[in-house]
Amino acid sequence: MTTSASQANLRGRSSTAAYVSPAPESRVIEFSAPEKSIGALDPQHAARLLAASCDLGLIIDAGGIIRDVCAGADEFPFAKDWLGRKWLDAVTVESRPKVEDLLREAMDQPIARAREINHRLSNGQDLPIRYSAFRIGKTDRVVAVGRDLRAIGQLQQRLVEAQRATESEFLRLRSAETRYRILFQTSEEAVLIVDAATLKTMDANPAAAALAETTSGKLVGRPLVDVFDASVREALSAELESVRSVGRVSAVRAKLANQRECWLSASLFRHEDSAHVLVRLTQSSGESAIAPAVKSQALQALDSLPDAFVVVDGERRVVDANAAFLEMTESPSLAQARGQPLDRWLGRTGVDVSVLFSNLREHGSVRDFVTAVRSDYGASEEVEVSAAAAAASGDSPCYGLVLRSRARSGGSRGVDAPLGPEQARSAEQLSELVGRVPLKDLVRETVEITERMCIEASLRLTGDNRAAAAQMLGLSRQSLYDKLRRYDLGDLPQAEPDDERQ
After folding, report:
1. Domains and CATH numbers, the chain
2. What is the 3-state secondary structure (H, E, C) of 412-462?
């Protein structure tokens, strides 16, 4: 049955009980000799005969009033309430013309043609009854013999519901097949469906045909190993045979018949009581290419790395990050962090991040760049940043940064932490002066050593950009120039020209 015909059929049926299509009119075969076969039948026996042969029997007088009723007490407990009422008042509005026709035919013909009549019950439901009627002898009374149609109505309703469910399931499967077909055809990954028993190709998407330099139609029906070079067919056949027992094959290196290198992965699945193999082919760029499975494992390793790892685009906006970065910045989720500028969390001042990315763009990588990370809730932590620029398609580069806590890595010195060589020499020189030089002179000397080290570090980090170094140290440019002259750092004249280039 077509969908349109089914829908028309469904609309034609009643959702409540009880529409039953009228049966075609049929002739009645009567007893040939009732006087001999039945004999004299008194009213009592006639009543028993009616009660046994029908579900509901009514005696109607010439005025259409119900004078007597026979019915099952369990199925029709309300039948006694119809006594003394007009039959028309006990049926639904659309059934009243049928009642009138039935009574009229019963007075004119031996047996009136059967009709389906609905009674309106007190609970609002309809009771469908199929009535036949005939006149009692020469009297003006009519006997209406009824058959309960509720069971048939329920069967018809179940049939309608089953048909609706079938059509709904058919539409769902057709929609799922359409989505699968679109995904299969538009996927950039080469995919083939192979029969597990014969290892012949059942379907192939355009990407697979392009990789094999043929068409999908030519791939279908051929053994899968024919797509590959003769030197690897035997090994691949063994791998594909093992899929039946193991269930999958991950990242097997193979060579196609057109000499292209690729990685083969296969998975077993069942469909329509038969086993199939889903084969994926990923083209490799050369001998140093990494298997897709290994790449996936590398991404999983980065995600579980204890040090924070974040990838940003050319505008320093977060593209991806691992769980450690989200924990360090106290970000609720990656979805909320993605697209946010890295400057929101990284850097003591605006200069830090600018200096970091300036070196990244110039040198391609930066190692152990010291700065700070601020969380969303105000916490701050010193970190060492190692970063590298990654090659990206188009004009938009991306950068990967690893942020390691200095407190955890030992970069933040405690009381017992060892001093560097320059710091150790300065400390030894100062300690030798204790007792010979006043404390205020020692403090002044210490301050000068610290200032000199900080200025040198800022100039080194900023690539000798003095304006950026001044901002990093929190000094004005004039103050920085004064200290540079004082400590004889850089090539500065005795008086700063107004148009000095930074």
Report:
1. 38-148 (3.30.450.20), 188-290 (3.30.450.20), 304-409 (3.30.450.20), 421-486 (1.10.10)
2. CCCCCCCCCHHHHHHHHHHHHHECCECHHHHHHHHHHHHHHHHHHHHHHHC
Bridge-partner residues for 248, per DSSP?
267
What confidence tens digit (pLDDT) does each residue in 322-340 have? 999 999 998 888 888 888 9
pLDDT tens track for 201-237: 999 999 999 888 888 888 899 999 999 999 888 888 8
**What would you report as the CA-atom Rg of the chain, rounded to the nearest whole angstrom?**
47
Residue identified by tokens 């490799």 is 284
Is 254 within 8 Å of 244 (Cβ atoms)? no
Question: Do 100 and 91 meet the contact criterion of CB atoms below 8 Å apart?
Answer: no
Contacting residues for 308 by C-beta, under 8 A, at least 6 apart: 321, 322, 324, 325, 327, 328, 329, 373, 383, 402, 403, 404
DSSP string, 54-103: -SEEEEE-TTSBEEEEEE-TTT-TTGGGGTTSBGGGGB-GGGHHHHHHHH
Per DSSP, what are the bridge partners of residue 66?
60
d(CA 417, CA 378): 28
Which residue type occupies 432? E
131-59-95 Cα angle (round to 5): 40
The amino acid at residue 380 is S
How far apart (Å, rounded) are the C-alpha atoms in residues 293 and 343?
Answer: 34
The structure tokens 């005025």 sit at: 63
Phi, psi (deg, nearest 5) at residue 280 = -115, 135
Rounded distance, CA 71 to CA 59, Å?
12
Amino acid 447 reads V
- What single letter denotes the amino acid at residue 109? Q
Look-up of token digits 């009642």? 99
Q: What is the pTM of this model?
A: 0.39
